[in-house]
Each structure stands twice: as C-alpha cells, then as structure tokens.
Design brief:
Layout: H1 9-14, H2 18-21, H3 25-41, H4 44-80, H5 82-86, H6 89-102, H7 104-111, H8 121-136, H9 142-158, H10 160-184, H11 189-210, H12 223-228, H13 231-245, H14 256-264, H15 273-284, E1 288-296, E2 299-306, E3 311-316, E4 319-325, H16 340-343, E5 363-367, H17 373-380, E6 384-389, H18 392-401, E7 409-412, H19 415-426, E8 440-445, H20 460-469, E9 470-483, H21 488-499, E10 502-507, E11 520-528, H22 551-556, E12 561-563, H23 583-586, H24 589-603, H25 606-611
Parallel strand pairs: 5-6, 5-8, 6-7, 8-9
Antiparallel strand pairs: 1-2, 2-3, 3-4, 9-11, 10-11, 10-12
Organism: Sporothrix epigloea
Protein name: Spermine/spermidine synthase
Keywords: Membrane, Transmembrane, Transmembrane helix
Length: 612
Amino acid sequence: MPSNTTASPRDSQVSASPNETSLTPENFERELKSLAVKAKDATWGRAARREALAYGRIILLLTLAAASANASVAALSPVFGTIPASLWHAVLVSSALFAGWSSNLHLRRLLLPNRPLAAFLPILAAYVPTVQYVLSSGTVSVSTWAGPRWGPVLIESLTLFPLLAATAACVATELESATEIDEVVHLPRWIGDALPGIGSWTVFRLAENFTAVAESPFSSAPRVVLWLTTRVASQLAIAAAYFIVSPPSRLWLYATPALLHALLLNSHIAGSPWALAATNRALRSDGWVVLDRRESITGYVSVIENLSQGFRVLRCDHSLLGGEWTRFPADPVAEPVYGVFVMLEAVRLVNVPGKAINDADATCLVVGLGIGTAPAAFVAHGIDTTVVEIDPVVHEFASRYFHLPVNHKAVVEDAVSYTDRLVAELSVEPEVRSIVIGRFDYIVHDVFTGGAEPISLFTLEFLQNLHALLKPSGVIAINYAGDLTLTPIKAVMLTIRAVFPSCRIFREHERKGSYADPDFTNVIIFCTKLGKQDADITFRAPLEADFLHSNVRKQFLLPKYEVVDSDFRSTEDVRIVRRNDTAQLAEFHAKSALGHWAVMRHVIPAKVWELW
C-alpha cells in the first residue's frame, strides 16, 4: 500500500540504492577526497601544534608557580629577614607541589565536579598579598607571637601552599591531555611516563631560578617600571597572569575584594606615593615616619625617622645599616646613634712604627657604606677616602638623607671584583701578590654581618686582596656582628689571622647576662701587617680634634672592651674560609639570623618592621 508521506533527502540517503555504494569511479574519487580531508586534519604538524600549545600552557603555569614562590619569600623578608623567611620555604613548596599533584583527581571529581580547577587559580593568587599583609602586620601580627622561625611557615601555609597545590593539580590535568596527544603522534612511551614527574619538577626549578630576585637593571628606569619591580606589585602581576592563562569564570568576581585591598589599602607597595602616605598615617601615632623607600639589589631599603626622640636610621629588610641623631647639629659631622661605627675610626689611633701618618697625606678604603658614619669622619679629617658599596640605593639614601659628604670617591660595585682589579693593576705580575705595593693607609671593612654575612668578603682570597692594598705601615679595621658562642666567629678570626698576624678584638659593649646565654654583639678587629713577633697593637690617646665635636665619639672612639680567644665558646674545630669552602659559615646562618631578628625587634618597635 503506497505511503502518503514524502521521503526526506536524509531518508533517501540512508536507503540509497546499491549503485550509489558500488565501486564506481565517481564513488572512488569521492572516497579518496574524504580520506584526504581526514588525513589533512590528522597530520603530524597539526597534532604537534596542539601539543606545543598544551605544553606551553604547562610551562607557563609552572613558571607562574615558581614566580609566586620567589615573590612570597621577598614579600616576607622585610618582616622576618631573608634567611628566616626561607628557612622552611623549600619544604613547604615541595609539599604543596606534591599535594597538588597527588590529589589532582580528587580535586577535580570530588571537590569541584562542575567547576574547572583552573578557574580558581587567579582567585588564590589575588588573595596572596592581601592575606600576607593582614597576617604580617596590623592587629594580627603573626611575626610577633609566632616569631621568625614559624611565622613564615604559618603565613605561607595559608597563602602560597594553596596556590601551588592548585597549580600543580592543574598541571597534572594538562599533562593527561598532553599524553593523549603524544599517543596521536606516537611519541616514545618513556617520554610520556617521565614528563609528568621529573619533567614538571625540572621545569619548575628552572623557572624558580629564572624568576628569582636578582640585581635590578631598573635603577634609572621610569617610575612605573620601578613600581612593577616591587615585591607586592610583582605578586599582583603574577595574579594578573593567572587571570590571562585561566578559563574565564564568574568565580573571578570573588577576587574583587582582594584586588581592591591590594590596590587601595596595602601599604607595602613600596613604589606608590599613596601607599607611603598610608604607612606614615599608621606610624605617626607611634612617633615614626618613613621618609623614603625603594626596592634594590640587596633588599627593601628605607629611611625611617623617629620624630619624638629625634633620630634617623637606614633599613634594609629586617636589619639596620646605621643611624644618626637629627636633634643635634652636624658640625662638622652628624652625631651617630650606634657607637660601633665610631669605633672603626680608631684605625687612626693605632700606633705604627716610624713616622705618624698625616691625615692630609693619608688614604682610606671603606668596604661597605651604610649611612656613611666612618667615611664622613675620615673626610672631615682630610683623608682621601674611597667607598665601595654594592647597592646604588644605599649610596643614594646615605647622600640624600644622611650627612655623607660629596668629596669622596664612590665606587658602586661588588668589592670582590673591585679589589681583584686593583690588585691586578698594582701588581708587576698579577699572580705574585707579595710584590704589590700597598695603596691605602687605612682600610675599613664594614659589611652587614647580622646573620647573613656576605661570605665572599670574609674569605682568605678577599682578605689577601686587602692585605695587598694596605701599605706596609697601614691599619685595617673589620666589623663583624655575630654570636660569640657560635662557630663562625672562630672561623672568621682564623682566616683573618692567616693574613694579618697581629690583631686585637674589641666588642661594642661590655658583656651582660649569664656566660651560658647567647652573646650576639658587634666586634671590631684591628690588624696590621706586622708579624707576631712585634708588639701588640696599641692606641694613642685621642685628642680633642679626633672627636669632631661629637659626644658619642668621646664615649666610643677609643676601644675599651677587649675580646680574647677564650670568649669564643664554640668547641668545634674550624678551618680557614676559602672561596670554595664556605660551608662552615653558611650552616650557621639560620641560627645567627634568628638571633639577629630578636635583637632588631628590641632596637626598633615591631610595628615599624611590620608596616615597612
């Protein structure tokens, strides 16, 4: 019985006659064209491009994770110091990556069944600077009650750990897709097996080294570039990058409060004028003000003034580089706050054989500037003074906000390379140091040593450079801050005496407290090129002109509290510190840095450290 319905083209296609599927020239040609199109779609080049995009996204995610890890340590360093902030950082980073990698499937299927995990990455990244600010400053003040050892662990556990774990989980997901692509292009199986674990970790470590905080090339760059290189701004830039690489989502609206806080209320953005004003509004009630601040190659550098007591200090991360009183006239030099820097000037008082050195004819090399207390005094005495300082911002702030005179030779360079070059220039044969004719009557070695001494400046090789540059009748003074109960001071003294046999050591203040307690102090080591058979180092009585109208110099210029070898209470055997053998100093950095942190919290209130 005939049907009343009309067959559609689709139905007619399905019920095609046998002739249409038979092996005719037309059908054969049509089939070839169809196969050609499919082959074109599945070419190796197209699959390779898809693979490159997949692995490119993986590399980008791992790079952002590495940059986040470095930025987190940098952001916590002004509150805890670089070494305490890094103490458990590597363990936490490894744990976060492992947790994210291993829990990838559970996060996707159980916790977030209907949301891509990558959509949460920008939110987590946006909240990192906000939560770190809240926890490290203000009323919460984790650094005060948790201390430098566990404070960074707690803060990063709530900020960096979730971000890295989520990123690692997303990377695992991306690698699963990339492995499927590998199968299309028939890559060897071992590549797909090795890449998820070893490959990801290798990429992360390479990215971590690549994005590590290094010497900034932007010292003369426009203000906007300087702002983008600051610690908190770099965290915001990383968050913005997460927004770019993550799939768009309405969840992003939840990041708005964190971004507004970071842009409007976070006073840690060092390059922003409004952030500086916000910092000073919070500090003025306690009598403090930040005059200027800048990110630099050695850390976060700022000039802080106590309005009520009338003194000014130069800060670098969680340490002080020096200070001077503002309530006393600088005539002819400023009145220093810390007496240890005055003791360095006693190199002029050391009795040397032969004719006394006339100040007008003397030359002095100062390694490490600080605020310039000792160099300013040498210049005031008429001594030709050269200052070597690695950090250009330290020199700029010392010249602008402290009384560092302009009539000195400034060398903004690493002291190791500078002295290497000078010794090579002065040597008849650069390989033979014994024939070098000294260039300086006085050398002052004054670099930061509060738990993070630049070890390269305490090696045998560097001290030999200074020995070569010191005239036969010259005197060197070396400032070292550390705990006399620990091993590094013994190793440093062994190394110094291997180069300068005749030395005497003096501490800043008389020892107080129990003999068994930690003994963190500044010591000044005075040495000459005289042999052991010569008489001990002695000081001439200072004249009124030596004090430069300074009451602090009257009190501290002449060293009083001598340190003897029995005061170094470590029982460990030590060896000379060489460029290729510095482990005995580095292994005590953490313990010394924790002690230095406690000292700094007594010198300057916690609120000043926490608000930057």
